[in-house]
Each structure stands twice: as structure tokens, then as C-alpha cells.
Amino acid sequence: MFSHHQLAAATRIGMLTRERDQALARDQALGELARTLPFDAATLLALDPLTGTHVQVAGVGYTARESHSLAAEFVTTPWYRNVVRGELPPSICEDAEEAGTLGGRFRHGRFYAERVRPAGFRDGVTGALRHRGRLVGMIHLNTESADAYGTPNRLLLAAVMPALAALTDPLAGDVHDLPEHGAASLVTAGGVISLPGRAPARTLDDPELAALVRDFAGTGGRRLRLLWADGGTWYRVTLHRRPAPDGVLVHEMPTEPPFGLSPREVEVLTRAATGQTNRAIAQALFLSPRTVHTHVEHVLRKTGAASRAEATALAVRDGLLRPGPEDLGFFVER
After folding, report:
1. Which residues lie closer than 8 Å to 195 by C-beta, 6 or more apart?
2. For 202-219, what is each residue's pLDDT tens digit?
3. Least confidently predicted of 17-26, 170-179, 272-281
4. How many CB atoms lie within 10 A of CB 112?
5. I need a labelling partner for 216 at 20 to 30 A (CA). Which of 35, 187, 263, 319 fits?
6. Where is coiled-coil annotated (predicted)?
7. b/e per residue, 260-289, with b = 16+ CB within 10 A?
8. Dihedral angle at the C-alpha atoms of 186, 191, 194, 199, nearest 10 degrees?
9. Cα separation of 236 and 44, whole Å?
10. What domains can you pick out in the chain, each with its CATH number?
């Protein structure tokens, strides 16, 4: 049914889901589509998990504002329900044979008359994007040519929509690169987002960690690994910076106290790793220098480190840290 050229383009779009730079991959996917399907304008829209609105993540011929405005209006029409329910992405040129679907003929509707036709478009096609069983966005193509999106082209678009959905899903990417086990949440400026198939991160109930996550987001860093004790349970916690949606991915795994370290010993080790002297640590933690010296000796014995420098290197390497906001500059991975 498809030509060799079309199959090759579909394969390249599928391979783009492996790219780490998802923003670039989405732009390249639209470029591949342009080689196989006719369009003068295209928009790839992600469904924001917090607001429920569609946000353009890649576009040709549309500004982000235009796409947002058009999508906000389109989802209120009966034809959006046709898009979500249909097996094939519906098009304007196939409208006549599908006039019995919800809403009647698209060409006879106000949205076409006021928004589509005045822009010079005579045909268009829209597909609902689903990833891992969830509706995650839309793909929409428009062209000034009539009858451009017949069944063959709609079938081709449907064939690449799973890959487009994976590229569009705001909860994909780093989320699915996490370890198989463990709880996770996405923290954004608008709130905390539950992730599909994951229990929420319990450590975020601790206001101190929640504040640390916000401070980490402000550093522009890529990753931070740390230890957190909560209600007698230790957790290995990793913070990942996410560009889209803008936020911090928090992953936690319950763990035994590493090397049998106590919470106070982890605090002392963390401050030692920033280069603080025993006296400075004592002042910060309201302890005597002798007590700090004892904690350092315990850390060396428990970790098997031959020196204070070796112990702090181990702490940074393995994330055996409980940093405060003032320590982030030492430990955030760029």
C-alpha cells in the first residue's frame, strides 16, 4: 500500500523516539512528514497533564499562540469528538462520506467557515495521539490544495501516529528511563503530577524536601542524588530536571541505611564533602568539635575509607548526601 519512500520516512520517524533531544526530534518528525504528506501548515500538540489544554510542541506555519487558540476552540466542537473516536484521522476532503458522524459535515460548520477557510486552507486532517493507553495530544495538517487527504494519506498518518504520540507525550522520555521499581512524581510550578504506573513519591510530603526540589529547579542543574530519612525509613532520592513540561522528576527507592550510617553522620559527611572543617560543621549543627570529630571517625570506620577525602569522594560518587539549599552548588550535576 505504501511506497518505499513512505515506508522509509515512517521508519525514520519511529527511530526518532530514541533521541534524547525530544524537541529536536519532534521538529525532525514534522520534516519527515513533509516529505511524505502534503501540508502547508502543521502543528503537533501535547495535552498538558495539569491544565488539560493543548500546547504546541512543534509547528510549521503556526505560531504557538495561534495553535493554542485554535486547539482551545476546536476541542469544544463536535468534530473533536470525531477525532478522538475515529479509527482513522478524519479529514475535510473525506467529509462527504462521513457526514453521518457527530456534528455533520465539517465544511458546513462555523469552525471551518470562520477559522479554516479564511486562512486559505481547503483540506486538513487531524489525529488523536495516544501513548501507553492515554490521550496525549493531537497532530493537525492543513493544505491549500483540495482533496489532499484521502484514505491512503490518512492511513499513512495513522501508521506514524504512535511514534508521534511517544514524541509528544509530556510524561515520556526521562520518565520511562527510570528504574523499574520505585515511586515517582513530577513537580511543576503548577503542582505535583502523578505518573502512570507509579506510586507517588512519599518524600515530597516532607516540606523540607519539597522546598529543596524547588531550589534545585532554580539551579538549572540536570540531576541531584541524595539520601532522605522519613518516618524511620531511608530513601535514595534522585531529582531530574525536565524541560517539558517544565519541572523536576522525583524518584525514590526505600533503602537500608548505607554503611549503617546514622542521619547525623550523613549530615556531617555532607558538610565535609563541601569542604567545611570540623569547627565549621560543629557551628552549623550546634555540636561540639569533639562530637563532630567522633562522627567523622565513625564515618571512616563504617565506609572503610582511609581518609576524610576518600569518604567525601565516596559520598559524592554514590549520592550519600543530605544537602540543604546552601549545598546545591556543590552537588548538582550539570
Report:
1. 171, 175, 184, 185, 186
2. 999 999 999 999 999 999
3. 170-179
4. 19
5. 263
6. none
7. ebeeebbbbbbbbbbebebeebbeeeebee
8. 80
9. 37
10. 4-170 (3.30.450.40), 175-256 (3.30.450), 258-334 (1.10.10.10)
Beta bridge partners of 60: 42
Distances (CA, A) of 175 to 116, 134, 267: 37, 15, 29
Distances (CA, A) of 298 to 210, 212, 232: 30, 27, 20
Torsion, Cα of 245, 115, 33, 61 (10° steps): -80
Cross-strand partners of 239: 224, 250
Helices then strands, each counted (H, E), the chain? 12, 9
The cell 477525532 sits on which residue?
A: 83
Burial of 142 (0-12, 13-18, 19+ CB in 10 A): buried
Query: What is the DSSP secondary structure assignment for residue 249, as one 8-state letter?
Result: E
Distance separating alpha carbons of residues 123 and 318, to the nearest angstrom: 57
Nearest to 251 by CA among 317, 170, 331, 197: 197
Which residue has cell 569547627? 279
What does the DSSP 8-state code read for residue 170?
T
C-alpha cell at 177: 528511563
Interaxial angle between packed helices 22-36 and 151-168, expressed in degrees from 0 to 180 and rounded to the nearest 10:
170
**Grid cell 486552507 — which residue?**
121
pLDDT digits (tens, 9 = 90+) for 253-275: 999 989 999 999 999 999 999 99
Residue ranges with strand state E in 9-121: 41-47, 54-60
Distances (CA, A) of 200 to 186, 192, 253: 9, 9, 11
Closest CA to 48 of 163, 160, 168: 168
